[in-house]
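User: Round two. Same drill as before: sequence, then structure, for each protein.

Assistant: Same drill it is. First protein:
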Amino acid sequence: MALQNIGAANSDDAFYRYKMPKMITKIEGRGNGIKTNVVNMVDIAKALARPASYTTKYFGCELGAQSKFDEKTGTSHVNGAHDTTKLAGLLENFIKKYVQCYGCGNPETEIIITKNQMIQLKCAACGFMSDVDMRDKLTTFIIKNPPEVKKGSKDKKAMRRAEKERQKEGELADEEQKKVKKEVKKKGSSSSKDGTAKSTSSKKKASGSDEDRTSPTHSQIDEKEEAPDEDDDDDVQWLTDTSLDAARQRIQEQLSAVTADMVMLSTDEPEKKKKTVSNGNGGSHNGNSMHYGTLVGEVKANLKKGVGANELLSHLAALPAPAQEKMSALVEALFDGIDKGFAKEADKKKNYFAAAVAEEGSQLLLLHAIEEFSCKSTSNALKEVALVLKAFYDADVLEEEHIVQWYQKGLKGDNKNSKIWKNAQPFIDWLQSAESETEEE
């Protein structure tokens, strides 16, 4: 059996001791049933100390084709006719990502899945812990199908002991970090309370400094949103009030009761038309539209009853509210009370969202709803936006075209300075780089 060095960088080293068999492929079948059989996949996988199902699945993910490894017969099939050189190149990428140490380049590594569902490679040579890029599609397959731990070896036992010690140290460090974060949060909450007190006192005073007006806290912003018409008009002098209520007042002051009623009949008609048009477009809260808080409560009540995805969405469709508010209410109700694990919860409840985006144009509504929820929710939800997008992308809930369109539009919009775009950028870069690689191939 012809052997070669593991890793392209070591191909010229005659004394390199880590070797693997050269790949042998065979084209089987015809027409739509044509497949590529990697004949010696089991031997290659043994040399790499990785399950053969990992390498087979990686070929399928990268080629966009169905792949299957039969554990009983040891056969590895990838749909379609593929050259040996092409598959060998993909295998080289697999070795770089999931076999070789990121520190010393040694292939003698072990896959470790952390408590946070992250994949790491532990090097037996230098002890370096390599963090695998979780944006790769194969990572979800590895987490669902973790590698088996071999028993009987003293070295493995020593490694497991060292790993347990490292995990204990990591847990102690995590606990310390949590304590520090709690203290910072307490200080932040007390400072935000002081900030709100200062803001209210500055509002009462006639003249306030510029420092009091800059960098408002979240609580100040909420107060301004709740009462926009109380203090905002103090420093503004309007020459003429052109609102409908002011027009009513002026007409009633100048004309008699009868003539005023006649004039107001003419002004009411275009206003009614505006209401009907706005309600038809789904962008107004006037008319018979349901209040947003009531809408969220309705969705939560149905979820408590254990209603399925299709039944819930059919009930939601019958409610009198704009399409965007319905989608936002669905997102808020499904993610209610979640502080951490935003992405995990998105993966659990993907069936609801898959049904919600069945109609054309609904994907952008879902993206806007995620944006709205993340920005007004906790910082953890905002941090996990890229993971949520990846979860929905892997589950075929969101398509690349709509995600990129939403992202580019958001960078140019009024909310362009929001942290959501910075947090989503790694996933967008990955999407675009994957697209450019497929175009080059």
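Second protein:
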Amino acid sequence: MSFTETNINIFRMINDLGKEYTFLNPPFIFIAEYTVYLLALATIVYWFTREYKNRMMVISAGITFIFAEIIGKLAGTFHSNYQPFAELANVNKLIEKTVGNSFPSDHTILFFSFCMTFWLFKKGYGFLWMIAAILVGISRMWVGVHYPADVAAGALISIVSAVVVYYVVPRISFIQKLLKLYEKGEGYILPSKSKSKDF
């Protein structure tokens, strides 16, 4: 069986579940479309804990996303495909999506960039973030807008980027100085908080 056939078969297996278990469609639509707002809220909360480690984590996640997006766009120039609903018949399409290159999945890149970074920094319960990212990846296939290869490529790019950034960015003195400068300025606006500790 060719890679293309495997890619389509796995997509069909996941997407067709929405036809069989229709009661699961609303939760997967929510995960596919709206968990991005929960991720944004969590990121804001982490930032305003005003803890140095949390802020360095948010900065690292943002840099990871930028790098992963750049790599993803480059990958998209070497390989491209339209969304499954635009190429296949009888797709269970549950959300509106414009037709374009769906490789790799930007949504997956965003979630794995942040969730992998959160896991690396938080350890322990941080694995819950990775479960959330995996659910988002599955949901994009469930609602009919991405192939497994789109999701897998986005996840792989983001995971590798997150690991590299985790070991490099927090140790860059320029980033540390910028954060401390920001916190100093913030201190003039917000009530004082206990002094930040170096990462």
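Residues 3-187 form a domain with the Vanadium-containing Chloroperoxidase; domain 1 fold (CATH 1.20.144).

User: Perfect.
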